[in-house]
Amino acid sequence: MKILVIRNGRVGDTVMATSAITALLNIYPEAKITIIVSPEGSRLLKGFHERVEAIWVWSRYGLGIKSKRDKKEIIKKD
Questions:
Q1: If DSSP codes are grouped into helix, strand and coil, which group holds residue 38?
Q2: For domain 2-76, which architecture applies?
Q3: Mean pLDDT for the chain overall
Q4: CB atoms < 10 A from the CB of 34, how many?
Q5: 21: closest CA among 46, 61, 52, 44?
Q6: Using CA atoms, how far apart are residues 65 and 26, in angstroms rounded to an integer?
């Protein structure tokens, strides 16, 4: 099972999402979890849990995922 968590807000929003991410990790122990967060959120979640497979950065200011090609790469990743 693959789970995508999207929390694109400031650090406080990401902190509030950590309990939900922890619950997902507990409920679905075999799941591969990928998280899309803001640049601030990626710094907060770095090393959060060994079962978080990837942390992708999305910024509404043009950093991170920039093009349709980048978005297609995210969609096709397993």
A1: coil
A2: 3-Layer(aba) Sandwich (3.40)
A3: 83
A4: 17
A5: 52
A6: 29
